[in-house]
User: What shape does this take?
Amino acid sequence: MSDTTPYDAAHFPLAAVVGADALKLALCLTAIDPKIGGVLIEGPRGMAKSTLARGLADLIEGAAFVTLPLGASEERLVGTLDLDAALGEGRVTFSPGVLAKADGGVLYVDEVNLLADHLVDLLLDVAASGTNLVERDGISHRHAARFILIGTMNPEEGELRPQLLDRFGLNVALSGQTLPAERGQIIRRRLAFDSDPQAFIEQWQPAQQALQQRCAQARQRLASIPLDETSLTLINERCFAAGVDGLRADLVWLRAARAHAAWRGSDAIALEDIDAVAEFALRHRRNNTTPNSMPPEQRPPSTDTQSSHQNEGQGNWGELPAQSVATASRRQIPNWPKKP
Assistant: This one.
């Protein structure tokens, strides 16, 4: 069975997924700026984690969706070198692995917490560098491996080491308790898709195209949005207050806030962008809970620094309403596609 899913293969449209608004936003932000570093999705079985991850490939033109099979060997992951050809014919013959197939697309690792630690380390190193180096008996081969890494895990089946958790840019947790009205809507859409996938996809095509266009426009806008000192200072202070180790949280948070500003159609990072992605960046890195590290709706009144930043950002926030998605599983992301 191939690891790669063709781009035009029939699968459930991301725009048609009910709920999971926080995860959908995190996936869109990663599509806008892959340098954010991928998404780790936590949640119990049956929460459509793979369906949502697969929908990410639709947001990137021409992207393949590649799955790393559970129990895959290191050779299956990185590829293999034919030593007989190298020694006998003086040429290096490389058989591509999963990493090569994922170049330019999305690499999906289900139950990443059950993957051997050395494979997770290798996977994350390549995801960060964008290059895969295969060496064997003094012979080496290097190739590009730039992909968006999406991992899923059920915490009940085992945890990832903190050092590995930190390597994922964003972290989103899905609740297993879906409201009755949403459960019914999910089942009805799934039955409609299973009954006639092509008709269902055509029904949702306008909403899906609108989502793709919004992400494409945000990608074009991204480079023109400055990573300003005011935003960086506020993020630095809140990372320190959250007790995070290292500096990856600061960088990821700043990049994600800029992607969120681009997603809103703004030309500058505002306080709402910083708040909107705070939980994504801090959830798997937070070592203590203080007022400055809490989601905005749980925090006491803003400090002078926060108020000052909000005042500076006014007038550049775009036409969408301000909203935090720290608890977006029960809330609506602005302008998310509605049922056709």
In short: The beta strands are 4-5, 39-42, 65-68, 80-82, 93-95, 106-109, 131-136, 139-144, 148-153, 170-173.
